[in-house]
Each structure stands twice: as structure tokens, then as C-alpha cells.
Amino acid sequence: MTAESSAVRPRLRPSPIRRLSANQVNLLLEALVVAAMVSGVTSWAVGTGWSRLWTLLHGLCGLAILLLAPVKVRRSVRPGLRRRQPSRWLSLAFGLLVLVTVAMGLLHATGLWFGVGYWSALWVHFLAAFSLIPLFLWHIVSRPVRPQTTDLNRRLVVGGSVLGVASAALYGSLELAVRVADLAGGRRRFTGSHEIASFDPERMPTVVWIDDRRPQGSLDDWSLTVAGASVSIEELWDLARPLDAVIDCTGGWWSEQRWDVVSLAELGDWTGRSIKVESVTGYARWLPAGDAADLYLAVGYGGRPLGRGHGAPVRLVAPGRRGPWWVKWVTSVEPSGRQWWQQLPFPPT
Ligand SMILES: Nc1nc2c(c(=O)[nH]1)N[C@H]1C(S)=C(S)[C@@H](COP(=O)(O)O)O[C@H]1N2
Ligand SMILES: [Mo]
Question: Counting atoms of ligand 1 from 1, which one is nearest the CA of 206?
């Protein structure tokens, strides 16, 4: 072969993403990790269609991190390992945890793998992301990326834009592939959750939040007070009518059931700021008093009494809100002077 023929082969210019400086890659990655955390928690908290935007943004952040990973390895990880800093293993663990987080998010979103039992892909995604926080803070402190005015150059604009477009293209291709392959991911809800056991409550999962416990013992002497008055389960059954509503657990599944419900507006005048709905276990949520007409006490589904795991004898049905609001084993529903937003976005226990 002559030198001439090899010269004909076009020399590929490195892509705009690969032309980013190490500092620029680090800045982008840090911004993406923060954006991923904010959008992830927000898409978790929002149960209405508005959630779609956050779920999408969250997915794009994850894919952009994935696309930047090879550049990051070439620019900082390999040189860093060669420098043999004592903390390099911690940095490596941080990077691996980021990759595990993204991988689990992808497995959940596509529906390729849901995990095993308690260790659902989305739960591992969340646990990995949560344990990232201290490592992320440590990484920022021990390996500070000092933004310099020289970082704000054309390369950053071009590289960042190409990264955004590439992430969107990858997102689109994944959506298409998932549909063509008829994976469960093609049917996920705007929250990112997958459908399970609709109108088949016996097959619906039972979930407790962090460390709550399903109460034991007899239901015969259940006491329920609503706006100061004692209400019996029989009275609720007399008033109940069917309502189709979707429960969407932050664990990544949703299920539609025909609940037998009575609206809170029918059971009292809610003039306070909020309504405190409390479980016999102590688990409680405050809901806006103005929403009383669209909040319900359910005693059954499909005309049958609720199962114990699903909140028997009475639970809250809160359409348009994520699972943690659907308080189970309700013993008291009372007006409260507290604003509904004066509580943690997710129950502490
Ligand atoms: N008292 C009480 N209510 C609760 C919970 C809990 O732990 N304790 N978990 C909530 C969460 S996170 C979800 S997703 C739903 C699950 O309802 P299910 O078990 O009927 O599927 O109940 C909600 N209500
Ligand atoms: Mo949940």
C-alpha cells in the first residue's frame, strides 16, 4: 500500500463532545447530576400530567451523563488513576455508582428488567442515587472544578448543544426501539410507572412506605372519626359509590381499580387550611381543604371489602396524587390549621 492511498481515507475529526476540555466535561457532569436529582425527585412528587415534563427531563439528564462518561474516563479518570491519589478508589466508587444509577433507570424505563421482589430496578436506582449524595458532595469538595471564564467558549456552546441533541436523539431511538420490541416500557405512564393488575385488586402489590407496618388484630372495633364525628364502616358502605382511579406508587407501578368511595366533602365541611388524614400506624398526610370534593374514603374495590394490605377497613383514595398520599388504615380525618405544604414532601417514616 502506498502512502497515497492511506491519505485518501478521511481523517475523522473528533466530535464536538470529545473536544470539550476536562474542566468543561466536569462542569457539565456536575450540572447534569444536580438536574437529574431535582427532576427525579420532582417527577416522583408530582402525580398529574405535569409530571411528564420532569420525567422526560430526568431521562435526558441520565442519557447525557451516559454520553459524557467515555469522555470523562479519557480526560480525568485514567489520568487520575495514574496519579495514584489515595482517594482514587472513592472517586471510582462514585463513578460506578453513577453508572449503576443510570443503568437501573434505563432498565426500569425500558421495562427490560424490573428487579427481584423488594429489589426493584427503580428502588435500586433510588438507593444508588441517594447514596450518591454524600459522595457527590465529597467529590465537589475534594476535586473542586473551578469554573473559569475561559471555559465559557465556543467549544462549550457547541459541545453542550451537540450533547443535548444527541441525548434527545438517543431518547427518541430508545422510545422507538422499546415500542418496536413491544417492551413494557412502551406502555409506561407519564410518571414513568408501569401498569399492573388493573381491576384485579388481589394481584395488586401491597406497599408500605419505608418502615410502616401493616397493623395486626381484629377490624371489628375499628374507630374512625371524621370532622369530630364517629363514623362506622357500615355507614360508609351505605354511602359508597364506585369510582375508577389510578394509584401510582413511587416504586414505579400503577394500577387502576374501581374503588367503593365516599367523598370527604360529603362527610364534613372543611373550612380549615388542610385536612389531616391519619393512619392507625401513625402515618399521616395533610391535604388541601379545598380538594375535599376530590378526596375519598374507600372501604372496598369491585364491591368487595379492601384487603388488609390495601388498607382495610378504610383508606384514602386521592386521584392525581402519587401513592404516599393514599393513606391506609385510616382512623381519623380532621381539619387542621396547618397548611398542606407545611410537611415534608414525602413522609419521614
Ligand atoms: N398507613 C400507611 N398508608 C400508606 C402507606 C404506608 O406505608 N402506611 N404507603 C403508601 C404508599 S407509598 C403507597 S404506594 C400506597 C400503596 O397502596 P397499596 O398497598 O394498596 O398498593 O399506600 C400508601 N399508604
Ligand atoms: Mo408507594
Answer: 19
Cell of 145: 472544578
Instruction: Give per-residue pLDDT as tens, 45-84.
Output: 888 888 999 999 999 999 999 999 999 999 888 888 888 8
* pLDDT tens digits along 82-136: 888 778 888 889 999 999 999 999 999 999 998 887 788 999 999 999 999 999 9
SS3 label, residue 211: coil
* 39's grid cell: 427532576
CA of 226 from ligand 1 middle (Å) equals 20
Decide whether any atom of ligand 1 lies within 6 Å of the 281 Cβ.
Answer: yes
Q: Decide whether any atom of ligand 1 lies within 6 Å of the 324 Cβ.
A: yes
Nearest protein Cα to ligand 1, atom 13: 323
* Ligand 2 center–CA 324 separation, angstroms: 5
Q: Residue 298 and residue 300: Cα distance in Å, rounded? A: 6
